[in-house]
Amino acid sequence: MAHAPDPAARPVPRHIAIIMDGNGRWARRHGLPRTAGHRRGVEALRRAVQGAGELGVRHLTVFGFSSENWKRPASEIEDLMWLLRRYIQSEIAELHKNNIRLNVIGDRARLPDDVARMIADAETRTAENDALVLTVALNYGSRNEIAAAARRLAEEVAAGRLAPEAITPERLESALSTAGLPDPDLILRTSGEQRISNFLLWQAAYSELVFMDKLWPDFGESDLTEAVREYQRRERRYGAAISSS
Ligand code: IPE
Ligand code: IPE
Ligand code: MG
Question: What is the DSSP code (8-state) at residue 214?
Answer without folding.
Answer: S
